Amino acid sequence: MTRTALVTGGAGFIGCAISEGLAERFDRIVVVDNLHPQVHKERVRPAALAKKVELVVGDVTDRSVWDSVLADFAPDVVIHLAAETGTGQSLTESTRHGHVNVVGTTVMLDALSHSGNLPKKIVLTSSRAVYGEGPWAAPGSKETVYPGQRSNEQLAASQWDFPGLAPKPMDGRVTRPSPVSVYAATKLAQEHILTSWAIPYGVKSTVLRLQNVYGPGQSLSNPYTGIVSLFCRLAREGKSIPIYEDGLMLRDFVLIDDVASAILAAVDCEAPTPLPMDVGVGVASTIAEVAAKIARNYGAPAPHVCAKYRFGDVRHASCTIEGTVAVLDWQPVNDVDAGLSKLQAWIETQLEPVRQDA
Ligand SMILES: NC(=O)c1ccc[n+]([C@@H]2O[C@H](COP(=O)([O-])OP(=O)(O)OC[C@H]3O[C@@H](n4cnc5c(N)ncnc54)[C@H](O)[C@@H]3O)[C@@H](O)[C@H]2O)c1
Q: Cα separation of 274 and 129, whole Å?
């Protein structure tokens, strides 16, 4: 029997990275992707997409695209990646984010249920953004506190942390989501819509909450995503990297290779996956540490704290991956040093050499 996978947004950073793994597992792979101009400068099929992939250029919010795709393909597994992904941008483009992320998901689910061919499984790449500022606790206290969103006054006064509290790692099994950006709210809505739809239809749903993904293949021209690529580009040009707030924000930077292996493990997984699973390295670094490493690697001037801030950015984001490792046959294998060296090697294949006299 022909086994088919359908990937929405599969021509993007993560979609390309899983495409060879899917090609090994499935007879047919169809990608539905509108080649969004913010992600795809040239709006052509990406070279990194596995040859076996059949690319349908279309929008997930367009029901006629779905009806025509599902007339040709009966997917066994759907991997839902298509999304508007700009955290900061979602504040000024909230309709776009709501439409693609929320309505795009409901249009997909309606089309699947009306097609008469339900997939066995749908994997959604959600985001650590759904946790917002996440859980905190007073030193020595076991009581978890959710301090909510940092106010304008707090940020304007450079009061970056919540006084008297220390951040705790996020954990999909127990942490209460509490979005602080429109993007995050739409990602949480996707999770809720998918799980409430999937149970009545007997479709298995898997929600992966990805931490900060970086690595080869990430758009070098999209100004709204990919802080690690942006830092590399600046340092490569000999510029000092500007660091927001005081630079001490924690992030779990996870290499695309480890994210791809987690998604493929979720595709393979036969165990039930009722709870969202965190995908990171399980080790957090400060933005300042990572910026300093990148500056050193390129021989660029030291990064500088510019004390700017951006609404929608959370102070700290770290996670435990214990729950994920217990369910999926998966372990991340790249630390930040290994990941940066892979990213930097790839960037040299993509960008013109920097002119020394520039
Ligand atoms: N990269 C990260 O750090 C990260 C972190 C957490 C979650 N995620 C999630 O992972 C998923 C994939 O992210 P990515 O990093 O590959 O992003 P990306 O922007 O590289 O890829 C997204 C793809 O979706 C396509 N797309 C956008 N709108 C579409 C629409 N209306 N119809 C059809 N296709 C559309 C784009 O053309 C692009 O190819 C997203 O759902 C994102 O929310 C990513």
A: 19
Asked if residue 264 is part of any domain, the answer here is yes
134 located within any domain = yes
Calculate how far, in angstroms, residue 81's C-alpha sits from the geometric centre of ligand 1.
Answer: 5
User: Which protein residue's CA is at the shortest distance from atom 7 of ligand 1?
Assistant: 127
Q: What CATH number has the domain bearing residue 58?
A: 3.40.50.720
Q: In total, how many domains does the chain have?
A: 1
Catalytic residue, from 131, 146, 183, 214: name it: 183
- Cβ of 61 closer than 6 Å to ligand 1, yes or no, is yes
Assess whether 183 carries a catalytic annotation: yes
Amino acid at residue number 303: P
Question: What domain range includes position 280?
Answer: 4-350
Residue 358 lies in a domain: no
What is the whole-number distance in angstroms between the Cα of residue 302 and the centre of ligand 1?
Answer: 32
Which of 7, 14, 208 most suits a substitution to test ligand 1, by most atoms within 8 Å of the C-beta? 14
Nearest to 267 by CA among 136, 112, 118, 75: 75
Q: What is the pLDDT of residue 356?
A: 64
3-state secondary structure of 120: coil
Give me the DSSP letters along 167-204.
Answer: E--B-TTTPPP---SHHHHHHHHHHHHHHHHHHHHT-E
- Closest by CA position to 219, among listed 309, 318, 351: 351
In the chain (358 residues long), the average pLDDT of successive 10-residue segments reads 96 98 98 95 94 98 98 97 92 96 98 96 98 96 94 94 96 97 96 98 98 94 84 96 96 98 98 97 97 98 92 94 97 98 96 72
Residue 82 CA to ligand 1 center (angstroms) comes to: 5
Task: Calculate the CA 347 to chain-centre distance.
Answer: 20
C-alpha 229 – ligand 1 centre gap (Å)? 16
* Ligand 1 lined by 66 (C-beta under 6 Å): no
Atom of ligand 1 at shortest distance to CA of 222? Answer: 19
pTM confidence score: 0.97
